[in-house]
């Protein structure tokens, strides 16, 4: 009788152990650290929402609240646009069109440029 109870306990703790190890590997997959590029892009999206979305459509399918402001999708699809040219433009806020009366730090400019580049359509 005692032996049976012990065996039953051993079996159930074995199952618990197996369940626990499955759980761990599942968690590892979910919590895998985001790549640096992805982190930058999502920071850029956050900044674009906070700083730019008052005038520009910042996501696919949106219409710019300010009709004079091109959508970020349009900007991303411009010929010759790269993360460098866009980053440079955003770094030099004195070049901004008159209505864009704001300043962006270099770090934020890079993140926003990284985000805008994600909107580029795949076929060019
Ligand atoms: C107050 C409104 C306003 C805000 C806020 C604003 N923009 Fe603009 N932006 C404009 C307008 C209007 C134009 C178009 C001006 C023109 O074509 O003369 C423009 C143009 C641009 C262009 C294209 C410039 C070019 O070469 O034609 C880029 C890139 C841009 N904005 C990025 C941004 C980013 C990034 C932010 C947020 C950090 C931002 N804008 C915030 C109004 C705004």
Backbone shape: elongated
The H-and-E topology, N to C, reads as: HHHHH
Which percent band covers the strand fraction?
under 5%
Average predicted confidence as pLDDT? 83
Are there runs of 5+ residues with pLDDT below 50, and where? Answer: none
Kindly state the number of beta strands.
0
Topology overview:
Elements: H1 2-30, H2 36-51, H3 72-76, H4 83-91, H5 106-117
Helix pairs in contact: 2-5, 4-5
This protein binds heme C (HEC).
Word description of this protein:
The structure is a single chain. The relative contact order is 0.13. This protein has helices at residues 2-30, 36-51, 72-76, 83-91, 106-117. Helix content is 57%, strand content 0%. The longest helix is centred in the first third of the chain and has 29 residues, at 2-30. The chain has a domain at 36-117: Cytochrome Bc1 Complex, Chain D, domain 2 (Orthogonal Bundle). The mean pLDDT is 83. Heme C binds at residues 51-52, 54-56, 66, 68-70, 75, 89-90, 97, 99-100, 102, 104, 112.
Give a quick set of tags describing it:
single chain, 124 residues, mainly alpha, Cytochrome Bc1 Complex, Chain D, domain 2, 57% helix, 0% strand, elongated, binds heme C
Short précis:
By secondary structure, the protein is mostly helical. The protein has five helices and no strands.
């Amino acid at each position: 009788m005692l032996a049976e109870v012990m065996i039953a306990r051993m079996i159930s703790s074995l199952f618990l152990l197996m369940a626990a190890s499955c759980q761990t590997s599942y968690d590892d997959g979910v919590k895998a650290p985001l790549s640096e590029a992805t982190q930058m892009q999502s920071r850029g999206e956050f900044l674009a929402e906070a700083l730019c979305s008052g005038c520009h459509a910042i996501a696919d399918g949106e219409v710019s609240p300010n009709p004079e402001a091109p959508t970020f999708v349009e900007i991303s699809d411009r010929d010759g646009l790269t993360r460098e040219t866009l980053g440079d433009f955003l770094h030099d806020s004195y070049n901004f069109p008159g209505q864009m009366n704001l300043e962006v730090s270099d770090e934020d400019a890079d993140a926003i440029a990284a985000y805008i580049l994600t909107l580029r359509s795949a076929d060019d």
